[in-house]
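Review box. Two proteins, two foldings.
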Amino acid sequence: MSFNEVLAPEITDIESGLQELISRGYQFVHQSDERGEVSAVVGVRVHDQVVDVVRLNSEDDVEATRMPGGEENIFEPERWLWRSRGEGARVLTEVLALPDE
């Protein structure tokens, strides 16, 4: 078992994952479509010269990216350091296991 696995909780549902992200400093916005309906929930955390972005399209479609802090477009970065996409609880568990450096 690695150091990160000991510190990072295993997320079993989206709500607990979002609460953990908020406790770690993520700030969230809700992207809306032309009718005003929420199309995605996006969380961003800037720290230690990196930017972490989590985009929740649905419980089964979550994308997370860690990129260098100098990226101009955090929603479509040219470079990234880590990326994962898939089922929400799994991706959120992976994000929370990332080191803070």
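Next protein.
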Amino acid sequence: MAKALLGYVGGSDPRLLAEMRRLQQRVQDLESELVRIQEENDALTAAASHESLLESIDVPQAEPALT
């Protein structure tokens, strides 16, 4: 399969080489997007856990303001 991806099968057809370069660029773009989305997900998860931590504090009623 690697030989087919490198254009070995059938010679070095310029169309195959161009398609291979296009697909390699697409894979790189998708990997970059995956890293960005994972970082965004981690940030959202951290924010959600922080909010749930604040909600877990049990205050039965509001305390009166000091005068």
